[in-house]
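Take a specimen:
=====
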Amino acid sequence: MDLAIGAKKTFVMMEHCTKEGAAKIVEACTYPLTGIACVSRIYTDLAVIDVFPEGFVVVDIVDGLSFDELQSRTRVTLRCAPSMSR
């Protein structure tokens, strides 16, 4: 917990969906947390997503996957980074 809260940036690496296809990036966590609001960026097998208090911004998407398809696999509203081509 001290490492997560004390770090300037915290990155999470994870699979985007469960084996059953359910979204893992959600508005509210259901498991107990050791660090709250400390994640800066999420790396998944589908995309790279920056986390801000205002929301989630997609920095990069895996080749062949559209933004709309990524959004359909994610339970939070995503925005495109200005530098990202759709």
About this structure: The longest strand covers residues 55-61.
